[in-house]
């Protein structure tokens, strides 16, 4: 006999159902549970805008055979301690007031927990839906350029007509912290003698704006080969993922690099929302007008890059940040006489001498 589903009424869940992502990803509030079913209300699918007119009020029943996985959100209590939902030995869900590290040490299974805050997850989902699609050089284009140029960090994704050196750029997608812009190059350049937009060129070449890409090779090749544009200040999350896994002790020599979707699943336990297999079918992206579904898929390819970059950067610089903290508090145990001596001493202290950056 299978264990009953055991979630609290009002708890928000994410269900991955049989079907094609992202429309098979359902979020909703628990009404009740039984051995083989879960009833949800106030639902939305990941592939649709979450505005009030598309919320499915329900309740609707979902049965065990159609449910591939169930995810819950991590939360934080008033003290900043992570409160995680995880399955115990009999498959029931229990709360554990532990940090992720202590959860792992205790052998608690956290595979069903989305490892970012619910508010942040919903913000990123909404940002993917609320993209700004730009296909002409109007006020929206120039407003976008002005805003993007004011940002220190942006995510950049591209969809091309092929995976070849002389491929045309189909779309360039840029994400800031709070907005996604889709630039339709097939339309934008059709009336401009194939001249690359000057304002966007300035942004890509700006040394003070960090550009986050997941596999930067093809876009940099096309831009340099066809437009003599060389992107500056690149952070490649595909490269950073390999470096982070090595730092965490994983053997990566014989493993392939990972897709953006694989990274989001591994680091944050996201459900399969990006539908990578559909995105790589490039012939689907050359037809105009683009469907709302394709625009949404395009927006997703850039919306999560800043989140992923910040996480990978924290892994790669963990030892450095710890050293900074140790150094900042290194005078706490010193006597009043020793404090000025240490401050005025220019020699490298033991903390900095023993700093681990490998």
From TrEMBL:
One GO biological-process annotation of the entry reads: piRNA processing
Give the superkingdom in one word: Eukaryota
GO terms of molecular function: 3'-5' exonuclease activity; nucleic acid binding
Task: Note the InterPro entries from the entry.
Answer: 3'-5'_exonuclease_dom, piRNA_biogenesis_EXD1, RNaseH-like_sf, RNaseH_sf
- Gene3D superfamilies in the record: Ribonuclease H-like superfamily/Ribonuclease H
Residues of the 3'-5' exonuclease domain: 136-317
What keywords are assigned to this protein?
Exonuclease, Hydrolase, Nuclease
Q: What is this protein called?
A: 3prime-5prime exonuclease
Origin species = Popillia japonica
């Amino acid at each position: 006999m299978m264990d009953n589903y055991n979630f609290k009424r009002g708890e928000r869940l994410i269900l991955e159902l049989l079907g094609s992502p992202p429309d098979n990803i359902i979020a909703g509030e628990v009404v009740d549970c039984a051995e083989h079913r879960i009833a949800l209300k106030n639902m939305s699918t990941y592939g649709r805008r979450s505005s009030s007119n598309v919320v499915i009020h329900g309740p609707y029943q979902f049965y065990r055979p159609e449910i591939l996985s169930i995810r819950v959100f991590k939360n934080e209590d008033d003290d900043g301690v992570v409160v995680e939902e995880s399955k115990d030995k009999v498959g029931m869900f229990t709360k554990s007031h532990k940090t992720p590290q202590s959860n792992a040490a205790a052998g608690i299974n956290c595979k069903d927990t989305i490892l970012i805050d619910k508010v942040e997850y919903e913000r990123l989902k909404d940002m993917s839906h609320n993209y700004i699609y730009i296909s002409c050089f109007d006020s929206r284009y120039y407003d976008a350029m002005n805003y993007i140029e004011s940002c220190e960090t942006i995510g950049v994704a591209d969809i091309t007509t092929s995976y070849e050196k002389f491929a045309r750029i189909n779309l360039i997608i840029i994400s800031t912290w709070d907005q996604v812009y889709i630039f339709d190059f097939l339309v934008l350049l059709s009336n401009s003698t194939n001249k690359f937009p000057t304002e966007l060129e300035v942004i890509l070449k700006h040394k003070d704006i960090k550009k986050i890409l997941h596999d930067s090779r093809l876009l940099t090749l096309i831009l340099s080969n066809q437009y003599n544009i060389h992107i500056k200040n690149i952070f490649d999350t595909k490269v950073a993922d390999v470096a982070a896994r090595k730092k965490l002790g994983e053997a990566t020599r014989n493993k392939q690099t990972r897709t953006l979707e694989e990274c989001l699943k591994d680091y944050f336990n996201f459900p399969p929302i990006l539908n990578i297999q559909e995105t790589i079918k490039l012939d689907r992206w050359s037809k105009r007008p683009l469907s709302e579904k394709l625009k949404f898929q395009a927006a997703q390819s850039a919306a999560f890059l800043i989140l992923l970059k910040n996480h990978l950067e924290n892994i790669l610089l963990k030892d450095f940040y710890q050293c900074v903290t140790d150094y900042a508090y290194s005078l706490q145990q010193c006597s009043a006489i020793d404090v000025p001596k240490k401050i005025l001493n220019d020699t490298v202290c033991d903390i900095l001498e023993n700093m681990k950056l490998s």
